[in-house]
């Protein structure tokens, strides 16, 4: 009897944390045997392939926000932030206060991990019923197309969510680099959170009061070079399930593209900046005023690209739904239902990354 109960709850996803994903081969390792190969499982359907040569919209730039001006409560910069969240869902921040050395160390730690022999990396491999660790997530069917990417996902805050069995603890400097980087990024995210709270009609602590201590998770994406970047996707179109995400990307190599007014445009790297995007949770809390925009990454022929995405999230048990300050039955009717955050995130991890499909269930 007891066994049956346990099995039923596992099938419903209870007791599993955030979700699971089928295990897939490492694309980085496949390419070690044949650097020119593009296995069938990675070749996208025609309609999903990226148009690599499209640079018609080269002149469009993701808005840049000077973080030091926000700290001074500069009205113009705050207005720019508001517009960026409304019209782009993306912005790049400069003068964010994270020392260059900390970002360089984080990138070096990630690179050192991905350069380890496969056998060593495998010691941190995720299990099928886990989303933390080295491998890939969002794989739910043997038939689905795979992204040209290997990743490592680690939860970093609150402290007790760290699962060190997925961390390469014997790799010199890795733990220190992640700890330092995640701590610094948390300071930046606290400031973003305070600004968004005010823009959404509350005081600076509004979101914190409503959502409790935030969770933080870091996804390190390794995109190997590809002989046919026109056939594959580094990361499929998706929006993030977070409140917001801070991305540290390669200083030189383009890869991230965002869907702006139905067109894919490059988020061209600005050295030492961080790319910030609004995630689904802020879209829901803001009652749709701030958009969680679809984005993707493309691969390239010349060099592997690495990126480090830090997701800032509410606590698992927190109910998210449009804030009172963002609903006005006459002019701004409620357009999302309430949902417990862990239910939202489980739903997201139960699907392939597929644009905004996972937000449909909470839309009214
Ligand atoms: C992500 C993501 C983009 C990139 O990890 O959620 O969107 O450029 N990454 O790696
Ligand atoms: Ni993303």
From TrEMBL:
Residues 213-314 form the Fe2OG dioxygenase domain. The keyword DNA-binding does not apply. Keywords: Iron, Metal-binding, Oxidoreductase. GO terms for molecular function: metal ion binding; oxidoreductase activity. This is Fe2OG dioxygenase domain-containing protein. It comes from the Eukaryota. Pfam families: 2OG-FeII_Oxy, DIOX_N.
């Amino acid at each position: 009897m007891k066994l049956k109960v346990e099995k039923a709850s596992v099938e419903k996803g209870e007791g599993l944390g955030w979700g699971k994903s089928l295990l897939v081969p490492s694309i980085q390792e496949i390419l070690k045997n044949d650097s020119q190969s593009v296995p069938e499982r990675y070749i996208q359907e025609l309609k999903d392939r990226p148009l690599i040569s499209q640079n018609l919209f080269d002149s469009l730039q993701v808005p840049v926000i000077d973080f030091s001006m926000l700290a001074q409560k500069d009205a113009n910069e705050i207005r720019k932030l508001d517009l960026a969240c409304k019209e782009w869902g993306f912005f790049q921040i400069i003068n964010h206060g994270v020392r260059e050395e900390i970002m360089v160390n984080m990138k070096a730690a990630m690179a050192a991990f991905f350069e380890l022999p496969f056998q060593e990396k495998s010691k941190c491999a995720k299990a099928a019923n886990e989303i933390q660790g080295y491998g890939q997530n969002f794989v739910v069917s043997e038939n689905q197309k795979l992204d040209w990417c290997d990743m490592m996902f680690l939860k970093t805050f609150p402290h007790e969510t760290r699962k060190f069995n997925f961390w390469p603890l014997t790799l010199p400097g890795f733990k220190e680099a992640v700890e330092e980087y995640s701590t610094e990024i948390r300071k930046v995210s606290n400031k973003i959170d305070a600004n968004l709270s005010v823009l959404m009609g509350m005081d600076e602590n509004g979101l914190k009061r409503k959502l409790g201590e935030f969770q933080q998770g870091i996804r390190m994406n390794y995109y190997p070079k590809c002989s046919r970047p026109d056939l594959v996707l580094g990361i499929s179109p998706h929006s993030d399930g977070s409140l917001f995400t801070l991305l540290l990307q390669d200083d030189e190599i383009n890869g991230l593209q965002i869907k702006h007014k139905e067109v894919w445009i490059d988020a061209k790297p600005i050295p030492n900046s961080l790319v910030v995007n609004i995630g689904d949770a802020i879209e829901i809390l803001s009652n749709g005023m701030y958009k969680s925009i679809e984005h993707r990454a493309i691969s390239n022929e010349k060099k592997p690209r690495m990126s480090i995405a830090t997701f800032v999230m509410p606590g698992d048990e927190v109910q998210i739904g449009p804030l009172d300050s963002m609903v006005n039955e006459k002019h701004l009717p409620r357009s999302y239902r309430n949902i417990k955050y862990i239910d939202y995130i489980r739903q997201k991890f139960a699907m392939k990354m597929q644009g905004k499909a996972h937000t449909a269930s909470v839309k009214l």
